[in-house]
Design brief:
The longest helix has 21 residues. α1 packs across α8, α5 packs parallel to α6 and α7 crosses α11. It is built from eleven helices and 14 strands. The strands form four sheets. An eight-stranded mixed sheet has the order 3-4-2-1-5-6-7-12, with helices on both faces. A two-stranded parallel ribbon has the order 8-11. The model has no long low-confidence stretch (mean pLDDT 95). It has 339 residues and is α/β, with parallel strands linked by helices.
Length: 339
């Protein structure tokens, strides 16, 4: 299939685009390479995909330098409607996977308009391009943040999610509603995925895994919020990508029955934050200097994914233990930063 992956220089997008191209799909990766975090990390991911930073020019398609690797990259903003239409008209995608978004719960408190531009206007542009240029299959990223103040656990897609506690979460819930509308009105088959705390090699610098490892290795204190009384459904990147590849295969085989569907994608085994820190300490061989902090605005005490539907419909198998995932990340981090 010819597949567009937006957010291809991002953490999940990079890993997914890599595996899709290795599987023989023709992949076009799109990213605006914004400076929300270190652009060099995004360029490093692209280098792994065979894209040299010197070759990147806005709105020009750059083919991978890896032989027999059907990947091309395009630097573009989702909200650039004119150039997005040119892209969709020229390429005639079989499947669009929208992972591009302004990420981060806390950052949404500081820069709210960034979220409206990318997560709402940008997603609407994707939907409109699918509508007008014959794309009938769309997979897109939502977030476990939509569960907000929900107290029932594990979190289920059948639960009401009407109480978001960050603008980021509100935009992701809006994406789900927008996708439902376009699925109903224009026959676009959509699969939304609520991601739960994804971690692994090439992970984002604003995520706990990266922040903790960086601080511990450099003898700096780590900030532990809510006095450490947090738990997260930490999910290793390979498990996430494996689930998305299974959904892609189902799209290709036309075996997805529902016009609109929504799934949690997580590990379904929540881990206490202090246990997660302990796993990093064990792997690095260093003790963390902990600064205990109160709960952050927009944060929640625990996340826990009910993934039974994803297991049933797409044979999803999250099976990477935290000890193994933490080990892989620390090994990558030390290699990448030559620690």
């Amino acid at each position: 299939m010819k597949i567009l992956v937006t957010g291809a220089a991002g953490f999940i997008g990079f890993h997914l685009a890599n595996q899709l191209a290795k599987a023989g799909h023709q992949v076009i990766g799109l990213d605006n390479l914004n400076d929300y975090y270190d652009v060099n990390l995004k360029l490093g991911r692209l280098k792994e995909l065979g894209i040299d930073k010197q070759s990147i020019i806005y709105d020009e398609l750059v083919p991978s330098q890896h032989p027999n690797f059907l990947f091309s990259f395009l630097q573009l903003n989702l909200e650039d409607k004119e150039n997005m239409e040119v892209l969709f008209k020229a390429e005639q995608f079989d499947l669009v996977i929208n992972l591009a978004a302004q990420a981060g719960v806390r950052y949404s408190l500081e820069q709210p308009f960034q979220y409206l531009n990318s997560n709402l206007t940008g997603f609407l542009t994707v939907l409109e391009c699918c509508r007008h240029y014959g794309v009938k299959k769309l997979m897109y990223a939502s977030s476990s943040s939509v569960y907000g103040l929900n107290e029932k656990i594990p979190f289920s897609v059948n639960d009401a999610v009407d109480h978001p506690i960050s603008l980021y979460a509100a935009t992701k819930k809006s994406n789900e509603l927008m996708a439902h509308t376009y699925s109903h009105l224009f026959g676009i088959q959509t699969v939304g995925l609520r991601f739960f705390t994804v971690y692994g090699p090439w992970g984002r610098p604003d995520m706990a895994m990266y922040l903790f490892t960086d601080a511990i290795l450099n003898d700096r204190p780590i900030q532990v919020f809510n006095e450490g009384n947090l738990s997260r459904d930490f999910t290793y990147i390979d498990d996430i990508v494996g689930g998305m590849l299974n959904i892609t295969k189902a799209f290709e085989a036309n075996t997805i029955a529902k016009p609109y569907s929504l799934y949690n994608i997580g590990n379904s085994k929540p881990v206490k934050l202090m246990d997660f820190i302990e796993a990093i300490e064990y792997k690095t061989g260093k003790q963390a200097i902990k600064e205990m902090k109160p709960m952050q605005p927009g944060d929640v005490e625990r996340t826990w994914a009910d993934v039974d539907d994803l297991i049933r419909d797409f044979q999803y198998e999250p099976n990477t233990p935290v000890s193994e995932g933490v080990s892989a990340f620390v090994d990558w981090f030390k290699s990448y930063y030559k620690k």
